[in-house]
Amino acid sequence: MLDFALMQPSSTIDDATLHELAEAFGTPLWIYDLREIDAALTLVRDAFPHAHLAYAAKANANRAILRHLHAHGVGAEVITVGELARVLRAEMNPAGIVVGGPAQDRALRELARRSGVGRISLDSVSQWADWRDDGGWPDGARAFVRVNPALDPATHEHMATGQATSKFGLAPDEALALAREVADAGVLAGLHVHAGSQITDTAVHDGVLAVLAPLYDALPEAYELDLGGGFAVPGYPYAALAERVTSFTEARGLRLWLEPGRALVATAGTLLTRVLHVKEGVRRHVIADAGMADLLRPALYGAHHPVRAVSDGSTRRSHDGPTDVDGPLCENADRIARDAALPDVLRGDLLAVELAGAYGLAMGSHYASHTRAAEVVIDGGGAPRLARRREVLEALWADEVDEEGEGGFEFLTFGEAAPTAG
Ligand code: LLP
What are phi and psi of 286, to 5 degrees? Predict the structure, then answer.
């Protein structure tokens, strides 16, 4: 038996602990260190002591993380009924939840109405119509109107949401018209912008605030500003941003909402993976048991995650020449890291993929019938605990419908939307 209780709390997880966790729970394994979440929260809160933080649940919706954030007074930003259900299941306070996103379907609206969410961010005029015409505006909720600031957020194209060409928000004049209508209906809280993700430069928010200033001048009823999330990890210059944002909100008497996702959880997460094979050649290929079905970001965005060899106490020589850390699947994009700086690596070694707590398992998939890894939480006070079991093979087909029986074609009913011949 492993005696986790003997482990000393530390800000990073030491290599002996990583070995023990791999033994106890297998690999690949997600490990979340809640102490790192606390440190990240401190960074954001030191800069924005009066802001309400609505954690973007899409970054990592593990209940242990949601509960931890809730215990620290954090709310949530959700865009699907699944996210809303998960944050409610984690007992988050509905008043601190903002429902956003470009869709907002009926299921989401119904649960939002029943649960009493505090804010709804309207992304289009038709969403406003949907809320009112199909069930009525939720009692007690207030609206943000999402503005498309039409600027270059200087990030990867897939994460840029504030360009004029992106689907998000309304052009400033249209946003103002909708906000006026919402204000006349008595439910306006303010405006919302999320310009993009993994933003590194505070100049982006200078641009956002310049777009928002004349809109707030025309909306005396507005009392809040939701500036979204998007703060890069690592190293976002919060103090510089806070200076600009605070002078904007204080001058107008606005309460600030922020929706950090990555910023709160990225540093807390490590993906632990075991080396299956090592192939020397033009490039050294280290074939690991985790890949794009676990951590999609390198394949999808060319994202860089530091990878280090977890020491087993033996001495390893350094290695010359390029190394890729590849995943177990048959696709060239199935890669965890390109040009990783790793010493001599042997079969069975453990690798730690760092800064992986955001958009990791959350974007994982069953590609090639890969089963999802387990998640473990460390909070310093007690033993590491399993927060989500490793998926069993049955999860791969649990929702398949037996060809012979129930759910076969003859049982399908086409409703009003049935395709008609001719
Ligand atoms: N608020 C809104 C309206 C958002 O759309 C997002 C993220 C956030 C807040 C949180 O952004 P964050 O603070 O985490 O940057 N899958 C990508 C990131 C996509 C983010 C989408 N929206 C990745 O792996 O980097």
Answer: -100, 110
- pLDDT value of residue 162: 86
DSSP symbol at 248: H
**Can you tell me which atom of ligand 1 is nearest the CA of 359?**
24
CB atoms within 10 A of CB 139: 7
**How far apart, in whole angstroms, are the C-alpha atoms of residue 134 and residue 137?**
9
What SS3 state is found at 134? coil
Q: What are 190's strand-pairing partners?
A: 144, 224
Domain membership of residue 408 as a residue range: 394-422
- Cα gap 379→32, rounded to integer Å: 8
* Ranges in the chain, pLDDT < 70: 1-11, 404-422
330 is catalytic: yes
What CATH number is associated with residue 348? 2.40.37.10
Calpha distance 370→3 (Å, rounded):
31
Phi, psi of 164 (to 5 degrees): -55, -30
Q: Which of 5, 330, 398, 421 is catalytic?
A: 330
Q: Do 321 and 406 fall into the same domain?
A: no
Based on the fold, state whether residues 258 and 312 are members of the same structural domain: no
Per-residue confidence (pLDDT) for residue 45, from 0 to 100: 98
Q: Does the C-beta of 230 come closer than 6 Å to ligand 1?
A: yes
Tally of structural domains, the chain: 3
Do 333 and 258 belong together in one domain?
Answer: no
Does the beta carbon of 119 lie inside 6 Å of ligand 1? Answer: no
197 lines ligand 1 (CB under 6 A): yes
Is there a single domain that holds both residue 198 and residue 274? no
Q: Are strands 269-279 and 29-33 parallel, antiparallel or unpaired?
A: antiparallel
Q: Which residue, among 332, 300, 238, has the nearest Cα to 49 in the 3D structure? A: 238
Would you say the C-alpha torsion 194, 196, 197, 199 has a positive or negative sign? negative
